[in-house]
Amino acid sequence: MFGLLFGLISFVVICVLSILFARIAEQKVKQSLHQTLGHHSNYVRFMRDKHDLNKIGFAQQLMRRMEGFSSFGSSFSSLSVIGGAIFLIGPSVEAGGTLVIGVGWPILAFFGLMTACSVAALTSAFPTAGSCNDGVVASGRRRIGIVSGWFHFSGNILLLVLTNVLLASWLNSVAFAAFGYPAKAWVFYIGLIVLFVTQLLASGRGARWMGWFFSTAAWLQAIMTLAAVVTLSIFAWPGLYPIELLYTPESLFNNFDIGFQDHSSLLLGMLLLQRMFLGFDHAGQLAEETIDPRITVPWSIYFSVVYTFIFGTVLFTVMLLHYPVGTEVFFSYEGITSWFLKFWEIGGRAVLALVTFIIAIIGWSSGISAMTSASRTLFAMARNDAVPFARIFAVVSERSRSPQQAILFVTLLAGGIAIFSQQVGWKLTDKTTLIQWVAAIIVILHLAYVIPIGLKLVRSLKGSLKLHSGPWHLGRLGGVIDTISTAWLVLSAACVLWFIVPELLVGLGAFTVILLLYAELNHRHLLKRGPYRIVGSTRLSKKSLEELVRIERKFPQL
């Protein structure tokens, strides 16, 4: 009874906090001097956004076409509730028991919401493709800004690899079950290459097509979640187990193990499930391609976390209560993916094929989201001369208005890592390897998030000059939320390190040392060329307005 009460209270508390924070942010937007210009022409709205970007020192080269729902879709697709139901819920519950959903999920959602608020405020202040690291550089911390950017880029590369490898493996097993051909390795590799190539082609088409992809993926995910909940409730009501199952630390059954052994097992399950709250900031990397990004992008980041929590709570709960665990066919929670797909056979082969196709599209879109985020981050760092071969990666195609060289490099790098990892035996479908991979992503991305948030918090506590703030923020409450976010990002990353094997720890340490050395060398190199920013302002470029306009003439938008 206590566990059920905790579940209900935690769900209500997070929903109430979500409404409260949204209300405060809405009031702050109204009190700011920022105008949405929703009733004005596209030209007026574009010129306002372009001038905002010019004030930071950058030219409008990328195509600005994405509306609010498309921006939301980019972050919501990355989190992917359906992807979590297919790829993560089984290993998570198998590792930590059903408490992972009943107790762990609300905890992850609460801190995910705090972090989303902090990141959303940063993207409102710096609506650029490298918003978080640009904010650090603007505060006078170029070295640490470079490190933050590289952590962000690396984390999204690993996310892209993880997404595509899991999706390719799942499609290979589904095709084997449907057509009966042997699940050969070469079939898997062909599927993996097809995923990367199609994502490359789609991502290179520019903001207009990307907006359509993300909007479609968001709608498909919402419809699929609703359909799964309704269908399970109708055809399998009232379920096999009571809702108390989610709050039971010990197995309800005597003939098999549900996975929970001790508190470390619960943390391990939460570690895997935390992937659901990584990538919510992907809308921020599309800020230069989004209309009214100072408002649109923060709301996209914020609501992607809120709706992921709500949809995930409902879907995961319904699945666990209806999954026939302990039976002869499904003797552990690792089989929940097969059961979820097999359940749709009640509608016939056509319905099953449709559901499979929708799941594949949602997973494919999640990969595109990670690819887009990584390529835009690389483009933004190259524009700031923060990466090798910056002149190549900072080039924008005049035809598609997208950084195609950066997209190509991200595809080749992630594809190479994916193939190499499989060749050397790092099978991401294996639970042990999956845990290590997700742990590395958590550590890297949490470091990328904590640097700009922590720097902002330290400066405010010292009473020094505050960073430029955007119209979307939470006022005085923002400092409290930044404190919670910083503590969570640091402590959770430290806890995750406990699960990482020594070899990977050494690798992560060496990677960090190399980044620090590169940041120092890059900083000294740029100082020889003069100041990297205008002191006392948020401009990150020495280019004059005339130079920016001259660049923009090659990239007509309207």
From TrEMBL:
Q: Which InterPro entries does the protein's record reference?
A: AA/rel_permease1
Give the membrane topology, semicolon-separated if more than one.
Multi-pass membrane protein
Which keywords appear in this protein's UniProt record, sorted alphabetically?
Answer: Membrane, Transmembrane, Transmembrane helix, Transport
* Subcellular localization: Membrane
Quick one: signal sequence residues? Answer: none
A GO cellular component term found in this entry reads: membrane
- A single MF term (Gene Ontology): transmembrane transporter activity
Q: Which PANTHER family match?
A: AMINO-ACID PERMEASE BAT1, OS04G0435100 PROTEIN
* Protein name as catalogued: Amino acid permease
Q: Which organism is it from?
A: Paenibacillus baekrokdamisoli
